[in-house]
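Q: Here's a chain of 414 amino acids. Please give me its 3D structure as tokens.
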Amino acid sequence: MTNKRINGEPLNILHTIDLEQLYPIIRCQLKLSQPLDQPRLAAALQTIGQVIPEIFAGYDLTTNQWILDVLEPKRILHQVDADQNIDELKLDLQAGPQLHVYLQPAAPGQRVTFVISHILTDGAGFKQFLYLLAKIYNEGAAVIDSVENHTDIEGIKALLQQRPPQTLRPTDHPLIPLALPRLAEIDRPRTHYVGATHLSSLESSRLLHWAHQQKVTINDVLLAVFGQLMQSYAAVPQITLACPTDMRQFLPVTLRQQLRIQNSTARYNLTLTNEPTRPLTQTIQAVHRQMTALKQQQQFLQSIEHLIDLAETAEISDLQALTHQNYSVRPVGYTNLGIIDATRLRFVDTTVTSCLLTGSFRIAPAFQAAFSSFSGQLIIGFNMIGTPAEIKFGQTILSQLQQNLQLVSRASEL
């Protein structure tokens, strides 16, 4: 018998619901000035697999376990043609592997795309993976000496025990969720598409300066600008968004400093009555006030508490059903993947000229905006399975978000 089974943690189950609607991945596309050394990259992937063997494994939905073929690890590195749409390639996380890395020529350099399982890790964990891989590529296998990946949830259990008394009712299933209109293109074929835009370094800096002036967070700004735009399309009285948060930040320092390539994300549920024509600056302040209250209550723990409480006694199928109640897939999604550290995401003999980090592919009219920052620029991206008109609509949404954020950034000059 060559298969080894590795037990998963309960939070892996969060990303196994509604697989037919939302296949759980994190996607990262890098553009490099010069191609990577392919044998060196392959060696680095084999080395990091000693720390995170799950990248080579399949996932058993019925047992929440990783199944690793010890003798014949899955192939994860692929050289493909420049014009290949890699997102149309078949992806089977149950058969494995949990990671695919695609190398494509892109004159004058190379495009490198990572597609990793969201069942395996969240966005913050993937960034840790990427930084460690780059370090191994640059410095060699000795980098992993004494390195251990921690996937336990003991720190999260402690958070649940220590949280303040709950006064907020669960709000994961809004009565009128945000939703985009369905376009009348019944017979047109759908394709996988990745779109992106960004603010310039100057515009990004001004936006950050304005947020500091107003004593709000960048996340408050992004939530408000995205939420109000989606509200205008949905024609509903409220902004209702789930806002993911990385629970690592709430762990004790000793645990926070560990390598934690795992799922450690929960989410706040924002529900704000709002006029779609309200000045953006007022909506931002209203979002800030509500997010402050949600943070004080640690409301994000509502989305995982029952799953953690029952994880040791309930059947996996029951835990999956429970997850539907508290971690629903919404038609309109928001994610803030934070800052990608350009000083840690570097490879010798080449330069990373751009980095686009996005989530799963939504089937239109479902839509998610993914925000991140790289080299001082705010980036907005989306992944869509859509018709040409639906994809064009997605690009229009990005342009509107860009324009509205530029409008806010110019407020810092007033």
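Q: Can you summarize the key feature?
A: The chain has two domains: 3-144, 171-340+360-413.
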